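Run log // design_07
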């Protein structure tokens, strides 16, 4: 197996930090022991945690105004996997990537699987793209895909999803995520009723092509690119569609796919209770689908989401959940952003493991509002960095992943062998 980052380099960096880390770890261990929390147990759970990296996430993103390419950018899925392998060698919790089709199409998916295997990278849920046209096909998704009034275009959109499933089977994936931007920008543009009927009808055809051990994840979004109305606009619509499709259909929660100030953690709780929570796309936002680094704006929200997940797991309600980062890195090095995001995600998970759920439940029943809130705040305000870092150390990953990454001069070196992309792929023209 190839290593994207030299083991000795990581080891030597860790050697400089290990002594201080052990002091911090022991100090936190004593603190947690007073609260009857076993730091070893928490650390072991952290070591097992995994969150997928989206293949598109390692490239420089953009906005509708412009895209500013960076040096050493990956130009195909093989190069994307190389970048993802760097991230995983440093953090150890991103062992799978989530590809997007037809963006990541190749001639030989068996060859792609062998290549990813050589880096110790597997494939998570696959994603389909029917929100933009590919090439010069006369059948355009301009006015919708799975919900288009034109049957031929709907059939084309269904086929895109079927092809994604076929690719995923070869790559040993076990799921498909479907998000459509279908909707309307003007009153009267579409029939709300007919468009939803068409969506369900199209998704039934996709659903029928799922292997027995696969899941399909339905992703909702309130607006964009359709701003007046979106067909699958909220978790309720997503739930109705998933229920209509069957047991293999679940709801996916993208943290940026909600209106500002939405109580996402309550949505998570509802979907858990309804047995339809399938997974997450982690990112952060100030106003909308900003696709910023996870935990960069609302770390408390991220913690509260994991609080619901951890509590549900204790109660035996939580099934296998698909975790993935879904971010657009417009002004940062994508690899650095994904490293930091993975750290924020696993840190919030660690903090949720510190919550005294028995005491919390008792205080809730007594209507002790301040007491209940203090329990959550105490866990959230605990510095868990030594647990997360120690987990990385014991897994032979980097105590300080960013420092190790910067010492590589990775993008500078890749810029010498990778073809650079010039100009902007988006923008107002």
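design_07 sequence
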């Amino acid at each position: 197996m190839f290593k994207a980052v030299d083991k000795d380099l990581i080891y030597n960096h860790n050697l400089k930090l290990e002594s201080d880390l052990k002091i911090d770890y022991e100090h936190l261990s004593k603190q947690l022991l007073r609260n009857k929390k076993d730091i070893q147990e928490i650390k072991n759970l952290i070591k097992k945690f995994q969150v997928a990296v989206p293949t598109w996430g390692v490239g420089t993103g953009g906005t509708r105004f412009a895209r500013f390419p960076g040096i050493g950018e990956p130009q195909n899925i093989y190069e994307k996997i190389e970048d993802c392998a760097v991230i995983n060698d440093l953090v150890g919790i991103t062992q799978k990537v989530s590809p997007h089709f037809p963006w990541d199409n190749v001639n030989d998916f068996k060859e792609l699987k062998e290549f990813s295997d050589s880096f110790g990278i597997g494939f998570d849920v696959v994603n389909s793209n029917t929100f933009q046209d590919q090439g010069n096909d006369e059948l355009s998704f301009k006015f919708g895909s799975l919900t288009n009034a034109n049957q031929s275009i709907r059939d084309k959109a269904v086929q895109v999803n079927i092809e994604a499933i076929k690719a995923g089977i070869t790559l040993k994936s076990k799921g498909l995520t479907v998000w459509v931007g279908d909707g309307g920008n003007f009153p009267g543009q579409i029939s709300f009723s007919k468009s939803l009927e068409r969506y369900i009808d199209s998704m039934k055809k996709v659903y029928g092509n799922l292997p027995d051990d696969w899941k399909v994840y339905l992703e909702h979004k309130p607006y964009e690119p359709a701003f007046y109305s979106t067909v699958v606009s909220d978790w309720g619509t997503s739930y109705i569609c998933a229920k209509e499709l069957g047991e293999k259909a679940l709801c996916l929660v993208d943290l940026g796919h909600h209106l500002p100030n939405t109580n996402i953690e309550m949505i998570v709780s509802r979907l858990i209770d309804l047995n339809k929570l399938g997974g997450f796309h982690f990112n952060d936002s100030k106003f909308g689908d900003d696709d910023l680094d996870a935990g960069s704006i609302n770390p408390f929200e991220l913690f509260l989401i994991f609080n619901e997940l951890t509590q549900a797991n204790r109660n035996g309600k939580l099934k296998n959940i698909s975790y993935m980062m879904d971010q657009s890195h417009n002004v940062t090095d994508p690899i650095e952003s994904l490293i930091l995001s993975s750290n924020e995600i696993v840190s919030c998970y660690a903090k949720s493991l510190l919550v005294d759920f028995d005491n919390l439940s008792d205080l809730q029943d007594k209507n002790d509002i301040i007491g209940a809130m203090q329990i959550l705040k105490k866990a959230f305000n605990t510095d868990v960095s030594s647990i997360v870092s120690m987990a990385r150390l014991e897994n032979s990953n980097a105590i300080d992943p960013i420092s190790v990454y910067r010492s590589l001069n990775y993008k500078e070196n890749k810029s010498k062998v990778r073809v650079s992309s010039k100009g902007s792929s988006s923008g107002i023209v």
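The first strand starts at residue 53 and ends at 54.
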